C-alpha cells in the first residue's frame, strides 16, 4: 500500500538496517535501486487501529503468524473482516518493501511463521508468470524476489514471503495454506491533524472577525452618511441660497451697488456667473417676480439718485429692437418698460433699470443674476 512519506515538522532519518543476516538482505534490496533515497519515519501514538501493529514508515500490519493458515483468497477475506479497509499487504514502493521486511526480520514475537509464509497481496495474472497487486491491478515494479523466482508452473499463483529465507518473495499455488500479513491505512499523526484543525479554526476566527469589522464599518458609514444627509437637508432649509445671496420669495438675489462693482453688461454677466454655479444677470419673467424684486430693492434702500442704474439679463437681437433673456434666448414677455422704451437706435443693446424714475412701471431700483433653482444677483452700470 502506498503511504505518504513526508511528515510536517519531522526530519526523515536515513534507514539503517539491523546488523544481522536480515540486515544484509535489506542492504541488498536498497542496493538494487541505487537511485532511490531510503528514509524512515518512527511510529507514533494512534498510528493504527486495533488489532494492527504500528510499523516504522507509517505502516499498519497484522501478522497472523502460524496461528492462522489459509488460502490466498480466504486470507484476503479475513483481512477485510479485521478492518473495513483491511487487505493483504501490498508493497508498491521500495521503501514499503524495506519497512515491512525490516519489521518481519526484527519481530520479537514469541509466535513463528513456520517454514513458509506469509501471503501478501500480489497475484499472478493468469498463467503469464506476470504478477500484479490485487487492489489496484498495477504491475509489480519494486520487488524482492528470491533467486530463480517466480517460476511456478501453475496458474493464478499468489506471492508469499519465505520466512526461512529472510522473507524474500516466492510464488506458490494460491490454494496453499499459509499464514498471512494484512495491512490498513495509517491514521493521521495526532499533532499534525490537531495543528491543522487549530490553524483552520484560527483562520476562520480571523475571517469572522474581519467580516464583523467590515459590516460594522459599513453600518457606521451608513449611519454617518445618513446623519450628514440630514445635516445637509437642514442646512439647505436654513440656508437655501449661496453665500452672499438672499432669499426673496422663491429665488435668491444679490445686489451689487458699490462704485467698485460697476462694469459693462458683458463683464457684469461674467461676474454673476462667477458668483454661483449657473449664475447670470436677473431675468424677470413674470409680473409677480418684477413686483417682488422691486419691493425688496425699495425695502433695502438701494435708491441712489437719478444717476444710478442696474443691468438686468435682457439683450437686443442685433438692431431689431426685439429683446430676449440672455440665458435662454426666450423673447421677453411680461415687462415693465418705461414709456417710449425701447427706443435706442443702436445695435445689441441691453436693458437697465434706473434707481429712480417717475415713469410708470419703473418705481424701484433693481437688476440681478440667477443660478439654478432661481438664485439671482444684480450688477450696476459703470
UniProtKB/TrEMBL annotation:
Q: Which domain of life is it from?
A: Eukaryota
Tell me the Gene3D superfamilies matching this sequence.
Answer: Mannose-Binding Protein A, subunit A
Q: Where are the transmembrane segments?
A: none
Which InterPro entries does the protein's record reference? C-type_lectin-like, C-type_lectin-like/link_sf, Ca-Dep_Lectins_ImmuneDev, CTDL_fold
Q: Name one Pfam family in it.
A: Lectin_C
Full protein name: Uncharacterized protein
Amino acid at each position: 500500500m502506498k503511504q505518504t512519506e513526508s511528515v510536517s515538522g519531522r526530519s526523515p532519518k536515513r534507514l539503517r538496517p539491523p546488523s544481522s543476516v536480515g540486515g544484509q538482505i535489506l542492504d541488498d534490496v536498497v542496493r538494487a535501486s541505487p537511485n532511490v533515497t531510503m528514509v524512515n519515519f518512527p511510529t507514533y501514538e494512534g498510528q493504527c487501529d486495533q488489532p494492527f501493529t504500528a510499523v516504522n514508515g507509517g505502516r499498519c500490519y497484522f501478522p497472523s503468524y502460524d496461528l492462522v493458515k489459509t488460502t490466498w483468497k480466504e486470507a484476503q477475506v479475513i483481512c477485510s473482516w479485521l478492518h473495513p479497509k483491511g487487505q493483504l499487504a501490498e508493497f508498491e514502493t521500495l521503501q514499503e518493501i524495506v519497512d515491512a521486511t525490516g519489521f518481519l526480520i526484527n519481530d520479537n514475537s514469541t509466535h513463528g511463521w513456520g517454514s513458509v509464509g506469509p501471503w501478501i497481496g500480489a497475484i499472478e495474472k493468469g498463467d503469464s508468470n506476470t504478477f500484479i497487486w490485487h487492489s489496484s491491478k498495477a504491475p509489480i515494479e519494486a520487488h524482492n524476489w528470491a533467486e530463480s523466482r517466480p517460476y511456478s508452473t501453475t496458474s493464478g499463483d499468489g506471492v508469499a514471503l519465505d520466512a526461512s529465507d529472510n522473507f524474500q518473495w516466492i510464488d506458490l499455488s494460491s490454494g496453499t495454506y499459509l499464514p498471512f500479513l494484512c495491512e490498513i491505512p495509517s491514521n493521521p499523526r495526532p499533532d499534525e491533524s490537531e495543528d491543522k484543525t487549530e490553524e483552520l479554526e484560527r483562520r476562520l476566527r480571523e475571517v469572522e472577525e474581519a467580516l464583523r469589522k467590515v459590516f460594522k464599518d459599513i453600518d457606521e458609514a451608513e449611519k454617518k452618511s445618513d446623519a450628514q444627509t440630514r445635516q445637509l437637508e437642514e442646512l439647505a432649509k436654513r440656508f437655501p441660497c449661496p453665500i452672499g445671496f438672499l432669499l426673496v420669495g422663491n429665488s435668491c438675489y444679490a445686489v451689487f451697488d458699490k462704485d467698485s462693482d460697476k462694469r459693462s453688461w458683458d463683464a457684469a454677466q461674467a461676474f454673476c456667473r462667477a458668483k454661483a454655479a449657473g449664475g447670470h444677470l436677473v431675468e424677470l419673467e413674470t409680473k409677480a417676480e418684477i413686483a417682488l424684486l422691486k419691493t425688496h430693492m425699495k425695502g433695502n434702500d438701494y435708491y441712489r439718485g437719478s444717476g444710478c442704474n442696474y443691468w438686468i439679463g435682457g439683450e437686443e437681437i442685433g438692431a431689431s429692437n426685439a429683446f430676449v433673456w440672455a440665458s435662454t434666448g426666450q423673447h421677453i414677455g411680461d415687462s415693465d418698460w418705461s414709456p417710449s422704451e425701447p427706443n435706442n437706435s443702436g445695435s445689441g443693446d441691453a436693458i437697465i433699470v434706473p434707481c429712480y424714475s417717475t415713469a410708470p412701471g419703473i418705481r424701484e431700483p433693481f437688476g440681478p443674476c440667477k443660478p439654478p433653482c432661481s438664485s439671482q444677483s444684480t450688477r450696476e452700470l459703470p
